[in-house]
Design a protein that fits this description.
The protein has 346 residues and is an alpha+beta fold. The chain has 14 helices and 10 strands.
């Protein structure tokens, strides 16, 4: 849905107030927003349209409104040129990075600490986060009993091996057919993309060879490609937020942060499209259960991906401030790693 300038102004006013207060926003509060010269009656009419479009909702019929995940996404996408930082914040980032400056690949935790300190959200850092290697070969080798050895070789030379359980009475020719289907379908495809497709397509509805191949690939890929170092700093600050006052939400957040492989896969998906990835609430199963928002960006060394950093916080985090701050930290690390004022690679 393309919003008019008036609709977007009202939505941004609602989000800005909601980010500050965490409470439903009344029309009269929006009417007092700087630069918004609209009456409360006009704002109520616009809000009704935003509600119908699924961009805001009312927790209670008589209450004000809060932005939905779709509304927050529209807000973030609209920021564009407004994603700027003042000189004070820029100086602060430079000071903190220089203060904690060490050899990046010997002591990686400080990157997450810098992010947490500057943003006052939980900071995250990941390495390695190189562009995803693709599948070069797949094979399923029969073993004794109802077992097979699954082998996957990727273009970076990595070899994933796993002993897999077979459905009853699978013949060797059927295993060869499944291997041929998998090799033909997924050669040249990254592991994360294969996972995405396996998750979207119901394997039990597929023809025989394809159904067997999908079943075996799911077993072979469990845990594959997740050999990364994910560090999270500042979870205590995150959990002290009023957004996480309910114990079930706290448990959900802790489960999310404990699954580093799932977080990294989500970041990689985003990095296929752009250097900076923002995900909000129900846009991803990583952030949905905890009502979270994540912002992540890459940093580089000699034109290659050196790692990624980001923040995790409540879905109502201040994206106007967080997104450019995270990108600035990434740029500063890139410059530090290159020993000059080099800019990031695309």
């Amino acid at each position: 849905m393309e919003l008019s300038r008036r609709e977007l102004s009202v939505l941004c006013g609602i989000v800005d107030i909601y980010v500050r207060t965490g409470e439903p926003v009344a029309s009269r509060q929006v009417a007092r927003s700087p630069g918004l010269s609209l009456s409360s009656a006009t704002i109520r009419s616009v809000v009704a349209g935003l509600e119908e479009a699924g961009l805001v909702r009312r927790p209670h019929p008589s209450a004000g409104c809060v932005p939905t995940d779709r509304g927050l996404r529209a807000y973030v996408d609209s920021l564009g040129e407004r994603l700027t930082l003042g000189s004070t914040t820029r100086q602060r980032v430079t000071e903190v990075v220089n203060l904690r400056r060490r050899e990046l690949f010997e002591d990686f935790e400080w990157v997450a600490r810098v992010v947490a300190e500057v943003t006052t959200e939980a900071g995250m850092a990941v390495r390695p986060i190189a562009a995803e290697p693709t599948v070069a070969a797949v094979s399923f080798v029969p073993l004794e009993g109802d077992r097979a050895l699954g082998v996957m070789v990727t273009t970076d030379g990595a070899i994933e091996k796993r002993v897999l359980s077979l459905p009853p009475d699978v013949s060797e020719p059927a295993l060869v057919e499944a291997e041929n289907w998998a090799a033909h379908r997924f050669r040249g495809t990254s592991i994360d993309v294969i996972r995405d497709e396996l998750g979207r397509v119901a394997g039990d509805e597929a023809p025989g060879a394809e159904r067997l191949a999908r079943t075996l690939l799911e077993g072979l890929l469990s845990g594959a490609g997740d050999a990364v170092e994910l560090l999270v700093v500042g979870t205590d600050t995150l959990l002290m937020s009023s957004d996480f006052s309910e114990i079930d939400r706290v448990r959900s957040v802790l489960r999310t942060l404990a699954d580093g492989g799932r977080i990294v896969r989500e970041w990689r998906r985003g990095f296929r499209r752009s250097r900076t990835h923002v995900v909000i609430g129900d846009e991803s199963d990583v952030t949905a259960s905890g009502g979270l928002g994540m912002v992540a960006t890459l940093f580089y060394r000699e034109g290659r991906r050196a790692g990624a950093l980001g923040v995790v916080g409540p879905r109502r985090m201040d994206y106007r401030r967080i997104v450019p701050t995270v990108e600035l930290i990434g740029d500063t690390l890139t410059q530090m790693l290159n020993g000059s004022g080099a800019t990031h690679a695309g």
